[in-house]
Amino acid sequence: MTADEFRRHGKALVDWIADHWETLDERPIRPAVTPGQVRDALPDAAPERPEPFSDVLADLDRVVVPGLTGWQAPGWFAYFPAMASFPAILGELAAAGLAQQGMLWSTSPATTEVESHVLDWLVDLMGVPQTWKTTGPGGGVLQMSASDSTHTALVVARERARTGGARERARERTGARAEDQVVYASAQAHSSVEKGAMVAGFGHIRLVATEAGTHAMSIDALRTAIATDVADGLTPAFVCAAIGTTGTTAVDDVRAVAEVGRAHGMWVHVDAAYAGSAFICPELRGHADGLELVDSYTFNPHKWLATNFDCSVFWVADRQPLIETLSILPPYLVDSASESGAVIDYRDWHVPLGRRFRALKLWFVLRSYGAEGLRAMIREHVRLARELAGRVAAHDRLELVAPTPFALVSFAHVDGDEATTRIADAVNASGHSYLTTSVLDGRTYVRVSIGAPTTRAEHVDRLWDLIAAAT
Ligand code: PLP
């Protein structure tokens, strides 16, 4: 493809994407394909000869679109949002076009410095501790997913417990063996904590009981679990507080969890994968009290900050233990800028070596919306969710099963699981709206998550009409 052809096809593709977004609500929100149907529409072998780009574009419509799910559609109320936006899409295009590989500062200074700077901006925008800036002792890095961020934190915690935390002994593993170390998270924590602990080789994970009503981690149960483990000769190494659990957006008491964790020398991590975006609104920051006590924190702009997947922020209060744990220096990566100590080499901040220019899309989003645009977006989603929660609460056959601190409404039918499932089935049969169910304390409930970029009040009204008719 020549540069001229690229110009032409690129414009056609951008037009195609804009058309696709403008017609999202006209297509089924869930694809009507059977397993294997998409593959069956593809030839058995890769093309031997070049094909015209117009054929490739046509196959987006023929092969791909019928197998798509409407994550950006106005009727998307399932799971959590995986929000995209036009500025983010353009940022992604720019990143692909610049085609950088920023493993070291030297291999792409702009990739590193824009990322550091944008994440320092976010420290101010989100009201998290100033020490998390790269200009201070801590710093931020973009990872692919919150699961990666949490896994990274777990690995650092494991090494700290193995070395007794002494920096100069970072490679001397004289402390507790991983098999004897314990990870704590609430029973409502995302499965990525358990998975990360498994991958990092921890011997024990305790899913701590939660409080009735709030579904937040019970601090008494946490203390009891730790005391039992210590009495058994185990080493508490890592505790994760959740701000916005996946099930119901429950909020753990970060300050209390962190105080208990620190008292036992544990690494304290916060998983705010979904809810973290809300803290761009100062009035919602009450849910984030105690962050100055934590070691690491993750949140996903790719969920609720209009930045398409993948874009997960990982902040640490002190970058030294992270770098000491993950840096390895083979001869082919020796670099004078790295040796000067004046630069950040993000390869030492996570598992992958190679890294792309993820910050560009976030930079585009922050500049295109402005902080006030993003605040307005979050506030509208929260407003719509609370309004819907009010309608649910006022209905005599529906019952909220959890509070709505952000933009998730969790409710059930008073007649039981069958009646609740019937509501979800009726909504999902509409073709234009989609929600999911989950189970809490043995009871099935409906989750309505408001946060797709195209969702407006009229779409929530349309959803409510379906819910009310099926109740
Ligand atoms: N943590 C929480 C609270 C989540 O809700 C999710 C996903 O929904 C994750 C972690 C995992 O996020 P990711 O897909 O970025 O790994």
Heteromolecules bound = pyridoxal-5'-phosphate
Low-confidence stretches: none
Whole-angstrom Rg: 24 Å
Can you summarize the main beta sheet? 7 strands, mixed
Q: State the strand order across the main sheet.
A: 1-7-6-5-4-2-3
Strand content: 5-15%
Give the CA-CA distance, first to last residue. 56 Å
- Large-scale geometry: globular
One letter per element, helices H and strands E, the order comes to HHHHHEHEHEHEHEEHEHHHEEHEEH
- Number of H- or I-type helical stretches: 15
Look at the structure and give the mean pLDDT: 96
**How helical, in percent, are the residues?**
40-55%
The tally of strands reads 11
Q: Name the structural class.
A: alpha/beta
Which terms summarize this structure?
binds pyridoxal-5'-phosphate, 13% strand, single chain, 42% helix, seven-stranded mixed beta sheet, 471 residues, alpha/beta, four-stranded antiparallel beta sheet
